[in-house]
Amino acid sequence: MKNLFLTAILALTFIGAKAQSPNDDLVKVGDKMPAFSIVSDNGEVISSDKFKGKVILINFFATWCPPCQKELASVQQTLWPKYKDNNKFEMLVIGREHSDKELATYNEKKGFTFPLYPDKNRAIFGAFAKNLIPRTYLIGKDGKVLYAGKGYTDKEFTELMEKIEKTL
């Protein structure tokens, strides 16, 4: 009986420790945006330096992720039409572990009008986080993170839209 009790305590301690394991967020609000390069299948490179001085929205998604689908539908319906022509704003929707070809096929199916960028080896995503998608980061003109979100809810999306409006 004593051994069963000790085993139960050890198991609960392990479960508690696991639940409080180190955070999977590598980039937090207030941090400087990590430098990165988007590399297309054809070898074209877009450096994050290109976006200096702009408000940048970075979204990480995967084509198989249901919450990502909801978020990208809201981006297509609400966010993109409002900000796509604003020269102070840049949006990077990055497909984690996807190639240009996969993203093109996906975009044809979904009918999104915003560009999708590849991150075949998680090189970009890995500079921001360890896991969990969708993830969204709003970067201010000074290069610092103003908003960092994971998952998707309508409420958080509304808050993000308000944050973008205030920042621009």
Q: Which keywords apply here?
A:
globular; oxidoreductase activity; alpha/beta; two-stranded antiparallel ribbon; five-stranded mixed sheet; 39% helix; 168 residues; Peroxiredoxin; Glutaredoxin; Thioredoxin_CS; disordered N terminus; Thioredoxin-like_sf
From the spread of the alpha carbons, the general shape counts as globular
By CATH, the architecture is named 3-Layer(aba) Sandwich
The overall average pLDDT, rounded, is 87
Q: By CATH's scheme, which homologous superfamily applies?
A: Glutaredoxin
Subcellular location: Cell envelope
Keywords: Cytochrome c-type biogenesis, Redox-active center, Signal
Protein name: Peroxiredoxin
Pfam family, one: Redoxin
Helices and strands in order:
Layout: H1 2-19, E1 37-39, E2 45-47, E3 55-61, H2 66-83, E4 89-96, H3 100-110, E5 116-119, H4 125-128, E6 135-139, E7 145-150, H5 154-167
Parallel strand pairs: 3-4, 4-5
Antiparallel strand pairs: 1-2, 3-6, 6-7
Protein name: Peroxiredoxin
InterPro entries: Redoxin (IPR013740), Thioredoxin-like_sf (IPR036249), Thioredoxin_CS (IPR017937), Thioredoxin_domain (IPR013766), Thioredoxin_ResA/DsbE_sf (IPR050553)
Subcellular location: Cell envelope
Describe the structure.
The chain is of the alpha/beta class and 168 residues long. The chain has a single domain, classed as Glutaredoxin. It contains five helices and seven strands, in the order H-E-E-E-H-E-H-E-H-E-E-H. The strands form two sheets. The protein has a five-stranded mixed beta sheet. The chain has a two-stranded antiparallel sheet with strand order 1-2. The longest helix is centred in the N-terminal third of the chain and has 18 residues, at 2-19. It is globular. It starts with a helix and ends with a helix. The relative contact order is 0.20. The model is unreliable at 2-22 (pLDDT under 50). InterPro entries: Redoxin, Thioredoxin-like_sf, Thioredoxin_CS, Thioredoxin_domain, Thioredoxin_ResA/DsbE_sf. One of its GO terms (biological process) is cytochrome complex assembly.
